Amino acid sequence: MSGTQRRGRRIMMTPGELDAFLGEQRTCRVASVSADGTPHVSALWFAWDGTSMWLYSVVRSRRWADLRHDSRAAVVVDTGEEYGELRGAELSGRVEVVGEVPRTGELCAELDLAETLFARKYFGLAELPHDGRHAWLRLTPAKTVSWDFRKLAAG
To answer: φ, ψ for residue 40 (rounded to 5)?
Structure first.
């Protein structure tokens, strides 16, 4: 096994660390590919429910059009300024639309947790206000890679 692989395992977040990290971070970067093959990366707020990442996207955006054409996505969440404090995760897989498009607040039990988490995290509210411009994409990652360089100093 190469040194890089051993280091990768040492700095990987545990499931609990990953849950805490994704629960506290506010912005992710979503990578998609347009119909003509052009890559696109955009910043977006998200909610993490312990299993899936919930992306609340404007439906009249390039990101939305790209992901409706090709549901494959990679999402990066990271933080840190100095090398020894870098932490992050890359989640990849396919997104799926959940709820009506655009979201107007129709009852949808599948969205209850995501909307509660999102409303509290970004607005300090118990319920998410709907603007009729956004809709939900759920990414249940097929692959997750994480890193916490603070573990190098501890090890």
So the answer is: -145, 135
Q: What is the rounded distance in angstroms from the CA atom of residue 104 to the CA atom of residue 134?
A: 8
- For residue 97, the SS3 value is strand
Q: Are 27 and 47 in contact (CB under 8 A)?
A: no
| Digit-coded pLDDT (tens) for 24-37 | 999 999 999 999 99
Tell me the per-residue pLDDT of 34-52, one tens digit each, with 9 for 90 and over: 999 999 999 999 999 999 9
With vertex at residue 50, the alpha carbon angle to CA 40 and CA 116, rounded to the nearest 5 degrees, is 85
Question: Is residue 66 a contact partner of residue 33, using CB atoms and an 8 Å limit?
Answer: yes
Q: Where are the domains of the chain?
A: 3-148
102 prior amide bond cis, ω within 30: yes
CATH of 3-148, one of 1.10.357.10, 2.30.110.10, 1.10.3720.10, 1.10.760.10: 2.30.110.10
